[in-house]
Design a protein that fits this description.
The complex is a heterodimer. By secondary structure, chain A is α/β, with parallel strands linked by helices. Helices cover about 25% and strands about 25% of the residues of chain A. Chain A contains four helices and eight strands, in the order βββαβαβαβαββ. The chains are: A alpha/beta, B alpha/beta.
């Protein structure tokens, strides 16, 4: 039986839906995502060249610089940010980037923690909807 | 605003959330409570000081967040130091970028100064005489500073970064979470060094390479390192932490017998959990050293030292090395440092000596952050910093070779890579 829903823990509140972009490796937004285009630019990353804009970005884990908060907020400011972020492991740096963008620009970018096992489930979905209680539904 | 059910606020904190301490504190508390919601913290704890990295410009959002506080006349609640900016404010002529970019960088610094932050402009605030002590809770940003303050000083900080750093400084409170919690500071990974690594670990470049290995192995876990030489200096531990924080999300390590929370291995690991154990031999160190180079040994165009910012002790070693090695510098040699260290070496006369030898001292920023600070940033640069070697190829399009400070000086005088040993 295919799992159609996953209960996540809300790190940043909000609802969103969109196609799932599941990153195959952890990514640092700073140095890893172009703050003007939203495209993954880290040359060694397997998803280099793909855009995070409007995607439900599924990340096994975040990585690297604490300046990633700024890059996420800047992307949300110009409307090139992800629609939502689904994490396998908690990350406070992305959380504060989304919180700042919400305060400054009213941008909605919910962040949901699902844990490593459920992460693999969500990563295989083509698209997902995230409800305000942190429930993720396939398609 | 909503306060999550798991978070119990004191009366003072609840009043700050309600706005009784003014709009600046109220705004800061919105971010701090939001972070507490994400971490599941049960309470907020006071901090003694803060170190803010948000002063480096990453886009309009950087300025907007600072202005969100300045527009309501917010002030920091605790002594707050600033990390590096985008340009050298003391030596603006070193910035070869356009004027608009320089002004953008300056305006952001001005906003943070208006909030009451101190213009320290350094990524190594732990080199100040007045620094956090064992068990003190602080809110520090900048990955190398976070790992140093936790590991070497035994003060306690979670991983703060842009926005959360200044929010913590204005609020004066942070979630009781992450490395503020004693149990989170115990090692889950034990890294045992073979005795044959010792020769390589007497140089900061070798210790920095070990840091890169630890970062890759540990990811975000706390590691306890067993077998570092007794004579390992603070400067070497700085290199270790900076390397580990570049290749992983390392925010703390223990060096058994050297760092304050690890008098013994038993003291540093969780009593109820069997840690993962990994041995590191000389082959692993040598391969990490090699992995930090992007080009083979040969001619070089520059030498970059001081990432993280040089200490007075490191300037002393540089001075000796320059005097011992005959001949003039053939390539540009830059050293990043803080204003405080610059003023010490100015008073002692070392700066004049270094300038006469052709050394370029950069303050307030770092050569890997901006392609405008070196004459030939895309050339081949030799560095003794694992962090510079890690980030400069992406940031500057630089080509890098890696070696000890001794090798860097000899190479700067030869115009090509010279190594005391291979």
């Amino acid at each position: 039986m295919t799992t159609r829903t996953v209960q996540g823990r809300r790190l940043v509140a909000g609802s969103a839906s969109g196609p799932v972009l599941a990153l195959r490796e952890p990514l640092s937004f700073w140095g890893g995502v172009d703050p003007v285009s939203g495209i993954v630019i880290e040359p060694r990353h397997p998803d280099v060249g793909r855009s995070v804009a409007g995607q439900v970005l599924a990340m096994p884990a975040a990585r690297g610089s604490s300046s990633s908060s700024s890059v996420l907020a800047e992307l949300l400011r110009i409307g090139r940010g992800p629609a939502a972020i689904v994490l396998g492991e908690a990350d406070e740096i992305l959380v504060v980037g989304a919180l700042a963008a919400a305060e400054l620009y009213g941008a909605v970018c919910p962040i949901v923690l699902v844990g490593p096992a459920a992460y693999a489930v969500v990563a295989a979905w083509p698209a997902t909807a995230i409800a305000t209680d942190g429930t993720l539904t396939s398609g | 605003m909503d306060v999550p059910a798991h978070l119990e606020l004191t009366d003072d904190q609840a009043r700050a959330v309600a706005g009784d301490q003014g709009p600046g504190v109220q705004r800061a508390m919105r971010i701090i409570v939001g972070l507490a919601r994400a971490s599941g913290a049960a309470r907020l704890i006071p901090i003694g000081r803060a170190h803010v990295d948000g002063v480096l410009y990453h886009g309009q959002a950087s300025q907007d967040f600072a202005d969100w506080f300045t527009s309501v006349d917010a002030r920091v609640a605790v002594p707050t130091t600033l990390n590096v900016a985008a340009l050298d404010l003391l030596h603006p002529w070193l910035f070869r970028g356009d004027e608009a970019e320089a002004n953008t960088g300056r305006r952001l610094v001005d906003a943070y100064l208006a909030l009451g932050c101190q213009p320290t402009m350094t990524c190594a605030p732990y080199q100040d005489r007045d620094r956090p002590g064992l068990g003190e809770d602080v809110a520090w940003a900048e990955s190398n500073a976070i790992v140093f303050v936790n590991s070497v000083l035994g003060a306690r900080t979670a991983r703060y970064g842009d926005f959360s750093d200044i929010a913590a400084a204005v609020a004066g409170w942070v979630p009781d979470a992450g490395l503020h919690r004693p149990e989170a500071r115990l090692a889950e990974l034990v890294v045992e060094l073979d005795p044959d690594t010792e020769d390589w670990l007497t140089e900061e470049s070798g210790v920095g390479a070990l840091g890169v290995i630890v970062g890759r192995l540990a990811a975000g876990r706390v590691a306890a390192i067993v077998g570092l030489p007794d004579a390992t200096t603070e400067d070497a531990l700085k290199a270790l932490g900076a390397g580990a924080a570049s290749s992983g999300s390392v925010a703390m390590f223990h060096a058994v017998g050297l760092t304050p929370e690890a008098p013994t291995l038993e003291a540093a690991v969780a009593p109820d959990r069997e840690p993962t154990r990994i041995r590191i031999d000389v082959g692993a160190i040598r391969s990490a050293l090699a992995s930090l180079a992007t080009v083979p040994d040969g001619p070089i165009d520059a030498v970059a030292l001081g990432t993280p910012h040089f200490s007075v002790g490191e300037f002393g070693r540089l001075r000796t090395l320059l005097a011992d090695e005959p001949g003039p510098l053939r390539v540009e040699l830059t050293v990043n440092t803080s204003r405080a260290v610059l003023s010490e070496i100015t008073e002692s006369g070392w700066l004049d000596e270094l300038a006469a030898a052709g050394v370029v001292v950069v303050t307030d920023t770092c050569t890997y952050l901006s392609p405008t600070l070196m004459r030939n940033p895309t050339g081949i640069t030799m560095t003794n910093s694992a962090k510079w070697a890690y980030y400069a190829p992406g940031n500057l399009d630089a080509r890098v070779v890696y070696g000890s400070m001794r090798d860097c000086v000899a190479s700067a005088k030869a115009g090509r890579v010279i190594r005391a040993r291979t």
